[in-house]
Amino acid sequence: MSQANPFDIIVEGDWVCGSSPSDEKYIGYVEAVDESGLLLIRVTQSDHEALVDTTLQAGRTKTKKLPERSASTREELRSLIDLALLTHDKEWFEELKTRLAAAEPIKQASPNEKAPKIHPRWNDTLYRS
C-alpha cells in the first residue's frame, strides 16, 4: 500500500482522516469542498461515537488524504458488488463483476495437504469450562 503524500490535493470523494477541533479522531470521505477551501466530511468512523454519520467542516491542516486502495480479493469484490446493488449503480456493478471474473480463484486444499490438527480434548466440554 502506498503512503499518502501530505501535499496531495484533497477533492470531493477522497477518503481522509483527521481530528476535529475538539481533537476527536475520525475517518470519512469528502462530500464537498466549499469556496473558502473548507472540507465537508461525512464521518464513517470516529473515536467519538456521536460524530459517526454526521458531516463536519474541517480545514486542510488537520486533514490527511488516505492512500488509495482497490479491492483485490474475491471477498472484497463481492462486498462492493453488494454495495453497488444497494446503491443501484449499474456502471460500478458491471465494472466490479468484470473484476471479480478476472480475480484469482480461491485456492482449494488439495487432497495431499494435511488438515490442521485439532487437539483431541477440544470437544471435551469439561476441559473448556
How would you summarize this macromolecular structure in one to three sentences?
This protein is of the alpha+beta class. The chain has helices at residues 74-86, 90-102, 125-128; strands at residues 15-19, 25-33, 39-46, 55-58, 63-65. Among the domains are: 15-65; 70-104.
Low-pLDDT segments, ≥5 res: none
Binned strand content: 15-25%
Helix content: 10-25%
Overall form: elongated
Distance, first to last CA: 42 Å
Major β-sheet, in short?
5 strands, antiparallel
Strands side by side in the biggest sheet: 4-3-2-1-5
Oligomeric category:
single chain
User: What's the helix count?
Assistant: 3
Q: Rg, please?
A: 22 Å
Structural class: alpha+beta
What is the succession of H and E elements?
EEEEEHHH
Mean pLDDT figure = 79
Task: For this entry, give a set of tags.
129 residues, alpha+beta, 5 strands, 22% strand
Explain what you see.
- Helix 1 runs antiparallel to helix 2 (90-102).
- The chain starts with 14 loop residues before the first strand and ends with a helix.
- Among the domains are: 15-65; 70-104.
- The mean pLDDT is 79.
- It has 129 residues and is α+β, with helices and mostly antiparallel strands.
- A 5-stranded antiparallel beta sheet has the order 4-3-2-1-5, with no helix packed on it.
- It is built from 3 helices and 5 strands, in the order E-E-E-E-E-H-H-H.
